[in-house]
Structures are given as C-alpha cells and as structure tokens.
Write a structure and sequence with these properties.
305 residues; 8-stranded parallel β-barrel; alpha/beta; globular; 15% strand; 44% helix
C-alpha cells in the first residue's frame, strides 16, 4: 500500500491528506435538518449527518488528493451509529480510489494489539468466513508500549501489504512533556524515530517502508533531524493550517525529490466554508469551499519546491 500511496502522490502532484474529522458544529444546517427529519435528534441522526457531510466533501476532493484520514474518535462519540458512519466513509473513499489512513492511535500489547491490527488492517475469521472489519489501508499507532505493541501491527502489514504511521513527534503544544525528554543525552523522539527505522527495515515497499511516522508540522527543526533518522519512513505531517504549521515549515520533512512526506489538513478543509476566505461559498456549498481550500493547500505546498 505504501507503493500505491507514493504512486498517487506522484500522479496527483499533491502530498496532501484530508482529515475527515467531523464535528456536528461543522455540519451545515440543511444536512442536519434532513438527517434529523429522518432519524430524529438521536445518535442515528448524528451518524447520518456525519456520513452525508463526508460524502459531499469526498465527492469534491477525491480527484485532487491521494488520501484521506478519518479520525475515529469523531465517529466513536456517536456510538455504534457513529462507527457505522465511519465504515461507510472508509468504504466510500476506497470506492473513489482514495488511500484511507485510519487515525485510530491504537497502542497495546500481545493479543490485544493483534486484535486492533486485525480490526483496522487485517481480517477476522468467523466460522468458515473471513471479514475485514474496518478495512483501512494505514493506521496510526502509539509506540509507548514498545516493540510488543508494534510487532502485531507490523506482522499484519507484512501479510496484507498495508501500513502504519507511528507517533514520533506530535504537533500539540504539550508533546514535549514526554517526547522532548533527554534519554542518555538525546531527546526521546529521536530514539523513537530510530525504532521506527528498525521496525520498518524488514517490511519495505519499493522505496519506502510500510512503517511510517507522525511528525508535526509545528516542529520543523525536529522534522529535519527525524527525516535523516528515518530515511525510509514516509512521514505523516499533522499541524498544517489551523494548528499553526505553514508551508515554509514543511520542506525539512520531504526528500529532495519532493517525496517522503504527506501533509494533513482537517478542519482547514472540511470546515473551510466557515473561514472568511471561503465565506462566499456559503453553507449550502460547503463542499465546493472544501474543494477550493484543497486546491489552495496543494498550491501552497508546491511553492516550497
């Protein structure tokens, strides 16, 4: 799957992933009203609204970007109806040819980690039948429990030719409370980066590993170091736009050929119509605002090369 992601980035000239992280406050009133009229102001109504909102955005951006990244927490908050919306979103995105990165941030050990890996990237056997439960192409993984937590995911990645992005240096302000701590004179995030390089060394695609890394756009100097520490890891870069990361900060994450990283934007695209810059579209055309915001982001990132 890493090969396919790289191919799609090359073909669309867009190292961009759209974060499908819906909040009810983002969803235009006309979508909410229709969903509530059918299902009531219930969890089912919320799930339907989320699904229809996502579908509108995907229809407008699937030809522009290689991938989407639904954040599962935004769906889980609505219980089973929310998870149904998540599955519908994943399946629909894949039907449109998009690579799906499940932002699930799982992290555990042993059979529990293996179960998470099977749920999101692999398959589960029920009697004589085998099913993919969520069926994403990549998943984000928390490495805090060490190799015991990562190996089950790597095993599934090898079998299914799928991938993971391991949290290395996240974009949130308090990430340094742990990630920047010195261990034997070196910051912890560097040591995690070295493990990512090790974990991915025996599960390679053509040019990059199935094991990638998450490194926030808000820390470009650290990104420069980690690009060297993890030469074969694709870097997923959150923090662009709404979180303060700028295009000028992104170059250290990429290799000289413009590959090696993919930059995420979530509410900056999916709720673009709420920004003054895109207010002309209005809530009725929120999806078209998302398309324009995507085009603008692609052009902004292209300007650094």
């Amino acid at each position: 799957m890493i090969n396919r992601l790289v191919e799609q980035i090359k073909a669309k000239k867009a190292p961009v992933v759209v974060g499908l992280d819906p909040m009810l406050s983002y969803i235009p009133e006309h979508i909410l009203k229709k969903a509530y009229a059918e299902f009531g102001e219930t969890l089912e109504g919320a799930g339907e609204a989320v699904w229809q909102y996502n579908k509108g955005i995907v229809d407008q951006i699937y030809d522009l970007v290689p991938a989407v990244k639904p954040q599962i927490a935004m769906y889980e908050q609505f219980g089973i109806p929310g998870l149904i919306a998540f599955v519908k979103t994943v399946d629909y995105c894949k039907s449109k040819g998009l690579v799906v990165i499940g932002d699930v941030k799982r992290g555990d050990i042993g059979s529990t980690s293996a179960a998470y890996a099977s749920a999101h990237l692999g398959n589960v056997t029920v009697g004589a039948n085998t099913f993919g439960a969520f069926n994403e192409d990549f998943a984000t993984v928390n490495p805090y429990l060490g190799t015991d937590g990562i190996k089950p995911f790597v095993d599934v990645c090898k079998k299914e030719k799928k991938g993971i992005f391991v949290l290395v240096k996240t974009s949130n302000p308090s990430s340094g409370e742990f990630q920047d701590r010195l261990v034997d004179g070196r910051p912890l995030y560097e040591l995690v980066g070295e493990k990512v390089n090790e974990w991915g060394s025996d599960c390679m695609g053509d040019d990059y590993s199935y094991v990638g890394a998450v490194v926030g756009a808000t820390y470009p100097e650290m990104g420069k170091v980690l690009r060297k520490v993890m030469p074969k890891a694709y870097i997923l870069v959150p923090g662009y736009g709404a979180q303060g990361g700028k295009a000028a900060d992104l170059k250290p994450y990429f290799n000289e050929d413009g590959l090696g990283a993919i930059v995420n934007s979530s509410r900056g695209i999916i709720a673009a119509y709420k920004q003054e810059k895109y207010a002309r579209f209005g809530a009725e055309h929120y999806d078209e605002a998302s398309r324009q915001a995507t085009i603008d982001m692609i052009e902004d990132i292209a300007s650094i090369f």
